[in-house]
Every structure is written in C-alpha cells, then in structure tokens.
Amino acid sequence: MGMLMGKVALVTGAGQGVGQGIAFALAAEGAAVAVTGRTASKVEDTCKQIETRGGRAIALACNVKSEQALTSTVQEVVRRLGGIQILVNNAQEVPLGPLNGVSDDQFTAGWESGPLATFRLMKLCHPHLKGDGSIINLASTSAMRWDMSNYGCYAAVKEAIRSLTRAAACEWAVDGIRTNAILPLATSPGLADWIKERPEESAAFLATVPMRYAGECEQDIGRFVALLCSEGSRYVNGQCIALDGGQAHMG
Prior knowledge:
46% of the residues lie in helices and 15% in strands. It is α/β, with parallel strands linked by helices and 251 residues long.
C-alpha cells in the first residue's frame, strides 16, 4: 500500500524532466496521475511508463497558457478519475536573458505559463481539493542568486508563484487544502541545455552545491513531493522548500 492510495493527482509539464519524475513518484505511491503537457507524444510516453510499472495514469495534452484548455483539462480529469486531491503546477516557459534582451512576448509567455496558469489551475481545482487537498507549486532559487544578471525575468515570474503559494496557504487551509512550493535543482532537459549553452557558468554554479550534484528528477524531487502530499506532512503548509542539495540560503 502506497501512502497516496486513493488519491488523484494532476501534474502539468509531466512529459519530461522534473514533472515526469514527480508523476512517476506519485504513481509509485498509489496515486492515479493525470499526466499533462503541451506535446501529446511525451505525456503519452510518461503515461505508458507509469502503466508498465503497475501504476494508473491518463495522458492529456494541455497548453497551460490557454484558460479554456485548463478548464477542459480539469473537467476531463474529474470525469475520468473521479476527482483531484493533488495539484502540481510544474509547467513553465523560461524567459532567460538580460533585461534588454528579453522581448515582451518572451516575458508574457513566462508569465502566462507560470504564475497565471498556476493561479488559474489553483482556482479551477479548489472545489475538488477541498477537504483533503495538496497543492505543490514549482518556484526557483534564481531570485537568491548574488548576481541576477540574465535571470531577472525568470526570477520575477517564479517569485510571483511563491506569493500565490503563500496566499493560498493562508486562505485555503480552512478548506482542508495545504499549499507549498518547491525550488528544485534537478537533472532535467533544461539543466542539460544550460550546461551545454553556458558550460563555465553552470560548472561554477554546480561547484557551489554542498552535495556536489544536481538532484535526480524522480528519486530526489519526485519522492519528496510524494511525501509532501502525504499524511506524514499534514502540518506542512505555506512553505517554500529548496531541493537543491543545500545550495541556496532560504533564510
């Protein structure tokens, strides 16, 4: 018996990387997982892998920047899986670059896929989460960098998600909903691209991780999320937790 038996989880951006690792871990603990993402083939692959492992999952293509798509997705999850007890807002387009180099369209995409999608999904799922719900939002330690050059826009949208997390934790705890954020450093495709495109910067950054490695998407990030959604974390609410081997100072 897994610690999430009987739960239904909706995970955005679960076709690869951290989102996929979280979906794997939730399913391994018994949750039925709605695997969503922009690319149908990727979420279908994640779904198949979960089923091969003996878990239960459905794959749904969803553009989180579309309010209509989010509404339809939530309705479909409830129709097919019977409810939603866990919401993981992972999907995010990343607006990186100097302030003068990031276009309005890039920043808008970061905003719409990040805090706006998080805001919309939290509200759409709220009626279903009431009583025994857990929301996990994904933020970033980019705002804690001593030199935020090239990270200002990305940090801005991720800090907005942290604010929404805290507000939901304060407003919705009385409804039986816990809301927390994680700030992961993981071996995702995004990290791989960063290492390839900025080898010196990435090497210098990774050298500052006390544990000397980036976390594994399932083992280090996903399993913690599963624990955070379980009864064993029932008193954890409104927290922003860095899963980064001790790199960031969250004080």
